[in-house]
Amino acid sequence: MYRLLIADDEEIIVNGLYDIFSNLENLELDVYKAYSGEEAIQWLGRTRIDIALTDINMPEIDGLQLLDEIKKRWSWCRVIFLTGHSEFNYAYKAIQYSNVRYLLKTEGYDKIIKTVESVVQELKDENQTNEMIQNAKDQINLAQDLFCQKYFYALLNSDHSLKINTEEFERLFIHLKADEPVMLVLGEILTLPKSIDFWEKNQIMYSIKQLLVRYFSMHVDSLAVPLKDDRIAVFVQPRKSQPFSDRDDGSMSVFLKGTLEIVQSACREKLDAPVNFALAERPCGWKEIAEKYVSLMDLLSHHISHDVETILDERDFRKQRQNFVPVQDAKADHAAAELQGLLFRKDLSDLYHSIETGEEQDYFESLKKWLVPLGEIQDKNDGIALEAYQTIITFFLSCMNRSQLASQFSEFYNINKLQDSESYGTWKEAADHLLELFHKLFDLQKEEQCKRTHEIIAFVQQYIEGHLSEDLSLTSLSEKTYLNSSYLSRLYHQTTGHKLSSFIENARIKRAKELLENPYEKIYEIARKVGYDTAASFTRLFKKAEGMSPQEYRDTFHSAKRHESKKQM
């Protein structure tokens, strides 16, 4: 979904264009309106803008000044100047910029719509990544990437032997400053086609890396490092020339989240690799990066839906949690060898990954790699079996605590008994019981995620119904729920089967019908109360929904009421 900002100091033009583009279903635009250059700049600071349809000649801050702000914040944004001025100097100044078009207001709505459609297609085409993927294949310097990857992997895992200084960074071709704070972003691929091989998987990882570096390079210095378990870490430092170079973490976060949305879209549509991102609340020192990495790993495990990728922000997550989260012989010798191999590697990564992504089949297949050989051990005093049991129990407790399900679980089971392997007569009995407990934990986690999802959907719907006359843009609603706007839109559609914009429109029409039943309510006042800028817009959309105008609906209602009264007499 692309975001269109309409800016003009003539209210009737803004409202007319807003109504038109909000109802063009083929484009699926998220539309915002501003009645001045100042208001338009406020939107630039609140959300990503892909297309700006703006007048040039506005008071205080004109269109050309607004263009400068757009290019500073969202450099790929397409700008369409819509003006009544045909003087050459306006057009000349506008065409000096790339991605800028110039239209006269006299050219009519059809021309404007066709221009916006052309720009949307242009943006879609630009997201094609085939050429970028090929370039990634050609340009990968395996040795340099390998050293860099190993260095940062050690850094994230708190290797105190590392040198963190300018000389070391230069040796590894790390184009970041060792003496300045760094913002950490952590990405994780949710799912990959099971048919891909090792090389294809790595090509996808490096393609994601190239996408991140390309889009981030517009405004920040960054380095993307692929990690194990389909994760990628991105280290970001602002440039001094950018608007957030004064360490305005909020402004920088808006840019990073907006950019990550573009990367997510390309990954989903062109690489078939949906990616979650977790964003640190603020920059930190290099020596604190390992602690921040753990924090973001934990954050990635708290996303609500496993089918919709999201961008998790530490700051937003803390606020969301306050609002929505309420206060897991030869046969025996072979089995022992299997367990010993698992214990040597401490190979729980598949288990952690599958429970975090909700891949139930993979989760229990990975779990059975531990439980099946455990159940085949005959000696109840076998040390390997006991270590494996304790490892699995520790993993179980970790999952339960990370999902915050201890209180729910303790309602039907005494958690303290988990550590007591003596309560089982055989390891087979222990393994079967553990499998039972893991099934219960998985079910509880799904129930909790479903509950959290429906709590947020209910909150959004109640907020909309109670604030129909206010700003109900996707950005505004996302700020109320502390969720990323694109994620909120997809989550709502996936959960309810309907678009969020449809719910808003239906809620407005429903409330309008209630108000129309009162003969003393003026239609223009009703329009304002349910969120329409003009009575004309209200009348047009009401007629589209109900097949009659508001006045006709009122007349029909009262005629039926009088008829009913006569029948009762």
What can you see in these coordinates?
By secondary structure, the protein is an alpha/beta fold. The chain is built from 24 helices and 10 strands. It has a 5-stranded parallel β-sheet. A 5-stranded mixed β-sheet has the order 7-8-6-9-10, sandwiched between helices. Helix 9 packs antiparallel against helix 10 (249-270), helix 15 packs antiparallel against helix 18 and helix 22 (523-529) packs across helix 23. The longest helix is centred in the C-terminal third of the chain and has 40 residues, at 427-466. The protein starts with a strand and ends with a helix. Residues 3-120 form the Response regulatory domain. Pfam families: HTH_18 (PF12833), Response_reg (PF00072). The modification 4-aspartylphosphate is found at residue 55. InterPro entries: CheY-like_superfamily, Homeodomain-like_sf, HTH_AraC, HTH_AraC-typ_CS, Sig_transdc_resp-reg_receiver, Tscrpt_reg_AraC-type_HTH.
